[in-house]
């Protein structure tokens, strides 16, 4: 386990009784105090991986340590360091917010601490709802209560499994701000999300899981620089019905009903091919009225990796080990 790793996973496998192999030799170190985004399509193994770390599902083989504690032999110590906000909202509908969050703290053997519960509820804008029954709250408020429960016992590691699913944009941004504040307080955040802009906005590092294997882990900024591509969009004066034969060998596609020509290129290459493209357009008598470029988003990179497998010879850095290569419907 690396010195700065708060979660360390080594050669983790999980095969269910049905024979389905959900995880295949996962190696991953998550650093203390970072926001780590775990991305993958439904069924890739995200929920299984989180469930094993949190002690909900037993691994078939391999080791996991959380805050220095083995999750099997030192279960209580490991679990007390972890807070989990699951995808599903499950609380006692007829309990008050204060009661359910206080009860969650007691489940971890923590002594009563009203000041901490008050601090958590205020941070999540739940203080004025502290005496309200859960059943009376909106979906967004119920999700905040789930986060409050996960923070009630002062964990060092917080798992957010699709935390903003089904909530409006304003609440999502409020939650992002709350997550940043938690990181500033030293809490390590592991985030799974279908909103890839969420990872692009917040994460320090990104891991991509596919078919039970980690295919890549890297710093978000380095990932986008290393694997990101640029597109030059050429807005044409007259529409084209097809890409001219002379340009067939280039990475070109028509868009906007033929009024736009989209050229993909590697911005890190000395020769981007843009000058040659514009020369060919001029030679073919293809006039354009405007052009602009855009950088690949994290979503573009994610989709490309999931559909095409591992990036060529790109080095994979998970902070400790090299990685391997998602699948439909996350397993429980």
From TrEMBL:
<dbReference type="Pfam" id="PF00005">
    <property type="entry name" value="ABC_tran"/>
</dbReference>
<dbReference type="InterPro" id="IPR003593">
    <property type="entry name" value="AAA+_ATPase"/>
</dbReference>
<feature type="region of interest" description="Disordered">
    <location>
        <begin position="311"/>
        <end position="332"/>
    </location>
</feature>
<feature type="compositionally biased region" description="Polar residues">
    <location>
        <begin position="315"/>
        <end position="324"/>
    </location>
</feature>
<dbReference type="GO" id="GO:0005524">
    <property type="term" value="F:ATP binding"/>
</dbReference>
<keyword id="KW-0813">Transport</keyword>
<keyword id="KW-0547">Nucleotide-binding</keyword>
<protein>
    <submittedName>
        <fullName>ABC transporter, ATP-binding protein, putative</fullName>
    </submittedName>
</protein>
<dbReference type="InterPro" id="IPR003439">
    <property type="entry name" value="ABC_transporter-like_ATP-bd"/>
</dbReference>
<dbReference type="InterPro" id="IPR050763">
    <property type="entry name" value="ABC_transporter_ATP-binding"/>
</dbReference>
<keyword id="KW-0067">ATP-binding</keyword>
<dbReference type="InterPro" id="IPR027417">
    <property type="entry name" value="P-loop_NTPase"/>
</dbReference>
<dbReference type="GO" id="GO:0016887">
    <property type="term" value="F:ATP hydrolysis activity"/>
</dbReference>
<feature type="domain" description="ABC transporter">
    <location>
        <begin position="7"/>
        <end position="236"/>
    </location>
</feature>
<dbReference type="InterPro" id="IPR017871">
    <property type="entry name" value="ABC_transporter-like_CS"/>
</dbReference>
């Amino acid at each position: 386990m690396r010195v700065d790793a708060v979660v360390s996973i080594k050669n983790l496998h999980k095969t269910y009784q049905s024979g389905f192999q959900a995880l295949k030799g996962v190696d991953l170190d998550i650093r203390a105090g970072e926001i780590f985004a775990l991305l993958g399509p439904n069924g890739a193994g995200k929920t299984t991986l989180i469930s094993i770390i949190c002690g909900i599902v037993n691994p078939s083989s391999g080791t996991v340590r959380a805050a220095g504690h083995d999750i099997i032999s030192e279960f209580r110590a490991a679990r007390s360091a972890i807070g989990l906000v699951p995808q599903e909202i499950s609380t006692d509908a007829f309990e008050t917010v204060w009661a359910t969050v206080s009860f969650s703290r007691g489940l971890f053997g923590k002594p009563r601490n009203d000041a901490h519960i008050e601090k958590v509820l205020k941070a999540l804008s739940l203080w004025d709802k502290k005496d309200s029954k859960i059943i009376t709250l909106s979906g967004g408020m119920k999700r905040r209560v789930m986060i409050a429960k996960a923070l009630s016992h002062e964990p060092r590691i917080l798992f957010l499994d699709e935390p903003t699913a089904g909530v409006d944009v304003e609440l999502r941004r409020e939650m992002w701000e709350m997550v940043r504040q938690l990181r500033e307080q030293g809490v390590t955040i592991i985030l799974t999300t279908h909103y890839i802009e969420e990872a692009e906005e917040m994460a320090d590092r990104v891991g991509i899981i596919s078919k039970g294997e980690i295919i890549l882990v890297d710093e978000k900024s380095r990932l986008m620089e290393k694997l990101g591509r640029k597109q030059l969009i050429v807005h044409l004066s007259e529409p084209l019905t097809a890409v001219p034969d002379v340009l067939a060998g280039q990475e070109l596609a028509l868009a906007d009903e033929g009024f736009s020509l989209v050229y993909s290129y590697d911005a890190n290459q000395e020769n981007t091919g843009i000058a040659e493209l514009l020369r060919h357009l001029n030679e073919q008598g293809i006039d354009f009225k405007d052009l602009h470029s855009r950088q690949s988003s994290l979503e573009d990179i994610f989709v490309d990796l999931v559909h095409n497998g591992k990036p060529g010879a790109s080095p994979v850095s998970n902070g400790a080990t090299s990685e391997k290569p998602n699948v439909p419907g996350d397993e429980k």
